[in-house]
Write a sequence for this structure.
């Protein structure tokens, strides 16, 4: 096979994979945002399993690896895009090839069914409904570790699926730094800090929905190339770079929930919308890692959305719609959107304690994968870990072990990317502020200088670089948790102590 034949073959396969993925993505969107018939779950799961299996079979064909190896043997002759395509497809191929096709297809069908059951189990606070699914899903994850292979810790194999190059050794060090600095700071705040006035009341849902256009416009999310839906658990989903959809959930008694879930998902969506079109052909119109994706959503949500300057722009919007804020000033709102205290729900956690929630999940997942923790013991262990790290015990399973959708998706290894990505964002913002007046951009309601930097240094890079390469190119150094720890310490010390 010649180099050109290899390229043509992979371009053709990329087109087919994108079409199959698009069909599956649209089915997932419908299932999540529409009232689909309950009896359709099984058939829909089978259809999505077939789509995944078909994509699997088309990609895991002998001519695929022949083409990849042909390009790898001509590496010095390839363009940057071609070299990245060979690297990413080679990485995916060798992982997928290690998985028996019948196992892959069965797992895809199981994921679809498990997510539907999770919604009901969470509503009923019934762990027994999910237990058989979790048993099967985690059993598959343990087999994945063996199929993929690993050098030091089996969990490394799963981490690498979401955060290329991440290891237990790296994450243990990262979480230890957070435990050393943030847990004592939280304790000091709870003992000495003056708590702000809280946003408590009942807030009309239609008025909340009316804020969505302003929030999406402020962030720079292009709704002409997207859509905003309502779901139980907010997410962003990409059909193509010109069809990137976000979701939120409106709560009558939790106004800030929808405000910040919209900003968060817009951060994800802007990343996807700014991918370069020519990268799609090379299958690198994708994030460098899940952590890199999370760096964008958390940067927009917290470093911009919870800044004092943003509070000054948000307040007029709130006053216009809700009498509750008639006597509020910017400082009151700034303190209210930055309340720091122990809580049970990860997606509602304050900025200071958020990564402590991830620490709980990280430590549990490690134990499940090694076999030190039984899936049947998760509810009790979850409560113990929350008490140890956060200082609280959940009153029910919906606030405890059933609160996240990720395990029903079979996404073991995903959670650490939330914390690592947040730290990436802090490292990037430290660099951005050297050349951009971020507060001035927020005050003008024009984030283009910030988004422009991110677009050039992150979004347009797609999967061209590894996470470490991207971070080095963007900030001048490898991952350094110091920026995140310092950012949190300085901000919340100033707010409370």
């Amino acid at each position: 096979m010649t180099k050109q034949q290899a390229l043509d073959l992979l371009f053709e396969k990329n087109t087919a994979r994108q079409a199959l993925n698009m069909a599956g993505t649209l089915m997932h969107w419908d299932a999540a945002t529409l009232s689909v018939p309950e009896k359709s779950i099984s058939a829909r799961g089978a259809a999505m399993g077939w789509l995944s299996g078909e994509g699997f079979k088309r990609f895991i064909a002998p001519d695929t690896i022949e083409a990849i190896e042909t390009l790898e043997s001509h590496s010095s002759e390839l363009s940057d895009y071609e070299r990245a395509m060979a690297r990413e497809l080679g990485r995916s191929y060798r992982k997928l090839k290690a998985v028996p096709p019948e196992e892959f297809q069965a797992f895809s069908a199981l994921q679809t069914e498990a997510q539907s059951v999770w919604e009901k189990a969470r509503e009923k606070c019934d762990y027994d409904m999910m237990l058989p699914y979790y048993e099967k899903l985690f059993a598959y994850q343990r087999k994945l570790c063996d199929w993929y292979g690993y050098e030091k810790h089996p969990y490394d194999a799963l981490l690498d699926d979401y955060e290329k190059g991440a290891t237990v050794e790296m994450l243990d060090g990262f979480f230890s730094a957070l435990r050393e600095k943030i847990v004592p700071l939280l304790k000091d705040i709870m003992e000495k800090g003056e708590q702000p006035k809280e946003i408590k009341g009942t807030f009309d849902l239609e008025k909340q929905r009316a804020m969505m256009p302003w929030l999406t416009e402020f962030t720079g999310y292009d709704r002409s190339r997207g859509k905003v839906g309502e779901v139980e658990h907010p997410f962003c989903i990409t059909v193509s770079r010109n069809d990137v959809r976000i979701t939120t959930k409106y709560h009558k008694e939790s106004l800030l929930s929808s405000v910040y879930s919209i900003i968060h998902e817009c951060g994800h969506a802007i990343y996807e919308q700014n991918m370069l079109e020519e990268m799609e052909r090379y299958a690198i119109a994708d994030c460098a890692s899940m952590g890199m994706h999370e760096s964008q959503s958390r940067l927009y949500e917290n470093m911009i959305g919870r800044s004092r300057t943003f509070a000054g722009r948000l307040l007029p919007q709130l006053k216009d719609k809700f009498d509750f804020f008639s006597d509020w000033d910017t400082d009151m709102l700034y303190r209210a959107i930055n309340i720091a205290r122990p809580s049970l729900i990860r997606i509602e956690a304050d900025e200071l304690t958020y990564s402590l929630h991830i620490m709980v999940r990280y430590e549990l997942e490690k134990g499940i994968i090694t076999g030190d923790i039984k899936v049947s013991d998760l509810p009790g262990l979850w409560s113990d870990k929350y008490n140890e790290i956060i200082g609280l015990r959940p009153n029910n399973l919906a606030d405890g072990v059933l609160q996240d959708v990720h395990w029903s998706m079979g996404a073991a290894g995903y959670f650490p990317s939330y914390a690592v990505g947040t730290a990436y964002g802090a490292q990037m913002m430290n660099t951005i502020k050297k050349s951009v007046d971020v507060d001035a951009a927020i005050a003008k309601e024009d984030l283009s200088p910030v988004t422009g930097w991110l677009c050039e240094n992150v979004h347009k890079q797609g999967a061209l670089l590894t996470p470490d390469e991207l971070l080095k190119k963007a900030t001048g150094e490898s991952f350094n948790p110091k920026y995140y720890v310092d950012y949190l310490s300085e901000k919340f010390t100033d707010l409370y102590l």
Observations:
- DSSP finds 22 helices and three strands in the chain.
